[in-house]
Design brief:
CATH topology of the largest domain: TIM Barrel
Pfam families: DUF8061, Radical_SAM
Oligomer: single chain
Cofactor: [4Fe-4S] cluster
Radius of gyration: 24 Å
Protein name: Fe-S protein, radical SAM family
CATH class of the largest domain: Alpha Beta
Distance between the termini: 55 Å
CATH architecture of the largest domain: Alpha-Beta Barrel
Number of domains: 2
Bound molecules: S-adenosylmethionine, iron/sulfur cluster
GO molecular function, one term: oxidoreductase activity
Strand content: 15-25%
Keywords: 4Fe-4S, Iron, Iron-sulfur, Metal-binding, Oxidoreductase, S-adenosyl-L-methionine
């Protein structure tokens, strides 16, 4: 029987090393390029991520230094190299893998996702020499009669010439169980280590495609697709009986409630300013005051309201003054006029996504 993990997923055999770090929030998401030779109907990437763009987590990358800076804030123990297809920009991918290994040492674990379409022996050799530890193939098993799929399948065989961990990773598309089992048997014959199965999720980008094919979310609060988890479990039960692969069924809930939360908590302690609280979810909570003239407001708060200057931070980019929650609550009661006070909660990420805003009376 597949084991249920404490982080809302299911395992047969051993959890792949890349996943072990990921669930603890220790994997940097290194998005090398949005360029990809495929066009999966379930592709979750937004149009602006489909271009030749580079991100380390939410941070846009101009050079390797940006990647290192992000890894330090996260206290990352490794990175998942993703896209798009990282092999569509092979030199860049190799440069980043090499730089991360050089900066953080051999222990820094690197796994990479690829379609397999560009995984020639030469390309794989470059990745292996750069220090890649684990490679995960996602061939187009749901369009089996295409030339591209044939090439992907042929290329996967090249990966077994190197002593890294080789696995597959595909979404559990309801109605496609037989294709996934075919892929599992294929990987097993070659001597692969694992097959990861992802619970299928909708995003703003793929929602139309998924609805048109009759797939529906399980409820209003979840992005998971009905029937995908059940299919994943069925594949794990079958796989345990019929193959020697390890399996991991990675759920939408794991990604949202565990992996993201753990990553945010790791980052929050390194970016929180003294006036910010870190919540259980890893978000930053603090008070803000908004007013047209920030210098005037600052003078009012320091001189008239006698708030110690070290409790205040003028954030000109966002047009506000930041402060501890308690100070904002007191000031909101004491100050009359056009100044607006709020308690906000933000992600500790590069884009500082605001997730809550409570106006103070
Ligand atoms: C997000 S992709 C990134 C790498 C690459 N673009 C790919 O598709 O392989 C990583 C894994 O996510 C899975 N995936 C793709 N679309 C998905 C979706 N809509 N819901 C859940 N998993 C998905 C695939 O199994 C893929 O191996
Ligand atoms: S392989 Fe990944 S990035 Fe490429 S189209 Fe499919 S889901 Fe999108």
């Amino acid at each position: 029987m597949p084991r249920e993990t404490t982080y809302y997923s299911y395992v047969v055999g051993e959890l792949p090393e890349g996943c072990q770090l990921c669930v603890r929030g220790e994997k940097l998401v290194l998005f090398v390029t949005g360029v990809c030779p495929r066009n999966c109907f379930y592709c979750p990437l937004s149009p602006w991520r489909r271009g030749d763009v580079v991100y380390a987590n939410e941070r846009p990358v101009r050079s390797v230094d940006d990647i290192i800076a992000e890894a330090l804030i996260q206290e990352a123990g490794g990175a998942g190299v993703t896209g798009g297809d990282p092999l569509a920009r092979l030199n860049r991918t190799v440069e980043y893998i090499r730089a991360l290994k050089e900066r953080f040492g051999e222990e820094f674990h690197l796994h990479l996702y690829t379609t397999g379409a560009l995984a020639t022996k030469k390309a794989l050799e470059k990745l292996y020499d750069a220090g890649l530890d684990e490679i995960r193939f996602h061939p187009d098993i749901f369009t089996p009669n295409s030339k591209l799929f044939e090439r992907e399948i042929e290329n996967i065989k090249n990966a077994f010439d190197f002593s890294w961990d080789v696995g597959g990773e595909v979404p559990a598309v309801p109605g496609q169980g037989e294709r996934i089992k075919w892929f599992a048997e294929f990987l097993d014959r070659l001597g692969a280590k694992f097959l990861n199965v992802n619970e299928l999720e909708f995003s703003e980008t793929n929602m139309r495609n998924l609805l048109d094919r009759g797939y529906k979310p399980i409820n209003d609060e979840s992005s998971a697709i009905k029937g995908s988890l059940e299919l994943g479990l069925e594949i794990l039960r079958w796989g345990e009986e019929n193959t020697s692969l390890s399996y991991h069924l990675c759920t939408a809930k794991l990604k949202d409630a565990v992996q993201l939360r753990n990553r945010l908590r790791r980052m929050a302690k390194n970016v929180a300013k003294p006036y910010m609280e870190i919540t259980e979810d890893g978000t930053l909570r603090f008070g803000i005051a908004e007013y047209g003239n920030l210098d005037e407001l600052y003078a009012l708060l320091v001189k008239d309201a006698e708030v110690p200057a070290e409790w205040l931070y003028i954030n000109r980019e966002k047009g506000r003054i930041e402060m501890p929650v308690e100070v904002a609550i007191e000031l909101a009661e004491a100050i009359e006029g056009d100044v607006r006070f709020f308690i906000v909660e933000e992600y500790p990420t590069w884009d500082r996504l605001e997730v809550e805003r409570i106006p103070l009376p």
